[in-house]
Specification:
By secondary structure, the chain is α/β, with parallel strands linked by helices. A 6-stranded mixed sheet has the order 4-3-2-1-5-6, sandwiched between helices. Helix 6 packs parallel to helix 8 and helix 7 crosses helix 8. The chain is globular.
Length: about 190
């Protein structure tokens, strides 16, 4: 089983806040089993305005939203979600630039070492950014093609399959799953 996830943050630095996280449990064929949508608030924020410009999160509206919960409750919900869907095999993680998202969850103490040890298999993960880099090196993806999630999805015409809301955690992880399937298909047809 896989845990695919994406987060939106107040910036790119270790001290930035995770504002939203969307987590999807996938079976071995990458079909959705369950999902968790988190909107997280804090007593105070470390904000880099450019990040909010990109993800279009209005911090005042975010903080007032009745679905936004404090980090402590978000941690409980995430742990309950992982436990509820747990099997005897740890989740392999999946995302686009997944190490960034994982680090942000760890830096915000939303995902602790204890829970990583219980639930996640970090020995091998799926990262569509790394897969796209490999395909670019093999000249399957043009050398001038940007490897950002949005640019790859435009290139492969995947954005039409969902609403066009890049830099939204739910939208981005659903596109990441579609992109992974597309890249694996292309890779298998070019071997």
């Amino acid at each position: 089983m896989y845990l695919a996830f994406d987060v939106e943050t107040t910036g790119l630095y270790d001290n930035c806040n995770v504002l939203t996280g969307y987590f999807i449990i996938l079976d071995s064929n990458f079909n959705e089993i369950d999902y968790l949508d988190l909107k997280i608030k804090y007593p105070f924020y470390i904000i880099y305005p450019k990040a909010l410009e990109v993800n279009q999160i209005n911090i005042l509206e975010h903080d007032k939203d009745k679905n936004t919960i404090y980090k402590e409750l978000a941690i409980i919900k995430l742990n309950h979600f992982l436990e509820k869907n747990k099997t005897n095999i740890k989740y392999k993680i999946m995302g686009h630039n997944v190490q960034f998202d994982l680090n942000m969850l760890i830096n915000n103490n939303i995902l602790t070492k204890e829970y990583i040890d219980i639930y996640l298999d970090l020995s091998k993960y799926i990262d569509t950014l790394i897969l796209a880099r490999e395909l670019k090196l093999k000249k399957i993806i043009p050398k001038n093609q940007s490897l950002s999630l949005s640019k790859l999805c435009y290139y492969y015409d995947l954005y039409n399959e969902l609403e066009n809301k890049f830099h939204n955690a739910e939208y981005d992880i659903k596109l990441t799953i579609l992109l992974y399937k597309k890249l694996k298909y292309i890779e298998s047809n070019n071997e």
